């Protein structure tokens, strides 16, 4: 049985609910695939601001760098709308992107045929 380390960052608000469900699905899939997962719980975003005063700690960054994967939930919410801009919850996502060498979120795209000629995407 192979073994993997995955950092689990529930995030804030609905992120915590979605990540709980995603983890449950992953646990079933990993079990069927014969993969043992060590879930490493970390905070980012508003939860990290509440606990540590910053949206992303060095400890979380290092855990993510050394892990096989990261499962990250949505961050932010009305509770943190008026915090100093330097510690906005979204800074966690930007910080992780920078530190892990990532540049974007990927989502499926479908272009309506009548708009294809105006799209920057290749056919």
Can you walk through the features of this model?
The protein has one domain (2-118): Rossmann fold. The protein has 123 residues and is of the alpha/beta class. Helix 1 (14-33) links the parallel strand 1 (2-9) and strand 2. The chain has a 3-stranded parallel beta sheet with strand order 2-1-3, with helices on both faces. Helix content is 37%, strand content 15%. The chain has 4 helices and 3 strands, in the order E-H-E-H-H-E-H. The mean pLDDT is 93. The chain starts with a strand and ends in a 23-residue tail after the last helix. The longest helix has 20 residues, at 14-33.
Short recap of the structure:
By secondary structure, the chain is an alpha/beta fold.
Assembly state: single chain
Query: Which CATH architecture is right?
Result: 3-Layer(aba) Sandwich
Radius of gyration: 17 Å
Strand order of the largest sheet: 2-1-3
CATH class assignment: Alpha Beta
**How would you spell out the order of helices and strands?**
EHEHHEH
Query: In percent terms, what proportion of residues is strand?
Result: 15-25%
Binned, the helix content reads 25-40%
Annotation field: number of helices: 4
* Major β-sheet profile: 3 strands, parallel
CA-to-CA gap between the ends? 42 Å
